[in-house]
Design a protein that fits this description.
Length: about 290
């Protein structure tokens, strides 16, 4: 089964649009997401554009603040401060990566916790790790968008997570670590693998659910996957020929997996969809 994140995200966005349409009568306005883009990275510009399109479809007010690549760290922090203090802004997102002269953590941590739609603020990270509740039942804090979208994908495919062996390849703060915690919340037994893991293939072959987020094209091959496993490919890479691909060798793995996400059209659309849900949660929490 090829699990389409595009189809699921379109359905969820239609439901969110109906919900947001009730907000002017209920709250006097709609949610407002502010996105800060520094520089002219083409991939970042595409991501920001796609986020704007999603906001427009759902009815969320979107502002994109595009700063030049030479913007100083001090100027960026001042821009974030102004957005924090703006009562008309409900969610703030600083698009990564930032130019090398800017400390990414300093910028992300400067965003007010209650407006942190990416879930990167230390208090949101702490809330994720100290609680067993799920994002959809406890929207008082935001979890990172991609992990939230992955859990939605698994549930939409009726994948039984409870008691299953889940292996996460990659330990980033954006995907690997938070998705491991969300899988734990669903009562999976979770193993996190990384660049220093010994006998990686032996571990991945034990996975009922395999989540891969390492940023290496076609890194996971068929011999590393158990027959019938659920494979979630988070990677967005390019082959030497320039073709978009994931961290999983899709063609060799698809007939071995019971469920697999494609690239593109798998996890990516769910990431943006989860951003919209986080924005709405931040808006409602501020009312």
């Amino acid at each position: 089964m090829i699990l389409s994140g595009k189809e699921l995200s379109d359905n969820i966005k239609s439901q969110l649009a109906q919900e947001v349409a009730t907000f002017p009568a209920k709250y006097g306005r709609v949610p407002h997401l502010a996105v800060v883009l520094v520089g002219d990275d083409p991939a970042s510009a595409t991501y920001v554009r796609n986020k704007g399109k999603a906001c427009e479809k759902i009815g969320i007010h979107n502002t994109t603040i595009h700063l030049p690549a030479e913007t100083s760290e001090e100027t960026l922090l001042e821009q974030i401060r102004l957005l924090n203090e703006d009562d008309g802004v409900d969610g703030i997102l600083v698009q990564l990566p930032l130019p090398p002269h800017i400390d990414e953590l300093k910028a992300l941590y400067a965003i007010a916790r209650e407006k942190d739609v990416d879930g990167f603020h230390p208090e949101n990270v702490a809330a994720l790790w100290r609680r067993r509740t799920k994002p959809e039942t406890n929207p008082q804090y935001c979890v990172p968008c991609t992990p939230r979208g992955i859990i939605r994908l698994l549930k939409a495919a009726n994948v039984d997570i409870d008691g299953k062996r889940a292996v996460v390849v990659g330990r980033s703060n954006i995907v690997g670590l938070p998705v491991a915690k969300l899988l734990l919340n669903e009562n999976a037994t979770v193993t996190i693998c990384h660049s220093h893991t010994k006998d990686l293939a032996q571990i991945t072959r034990e996975a009922d659910i395999l989540v891969v987020a390492v940023g290496k094209p076609h890194f996971i091959t068929a011999e590393m996957v158990k027959k019938g496993a659920v494979v979630i490919d988070v990677g967005i890479d390019r082959t030497p020929e320039g073709k978009l691909c994931g961290d999983v060798d899709f063609e060799s793995v698809k007939d071995k997996a019971s469920v697999i996400t494609p690239v593109p059209g798998g996890v990516g659309p769910m990431t943006i969809c989860s951003l919209m849900e986080n924005t709405i949660d931040c808006f409602i929490n501020r009312q």
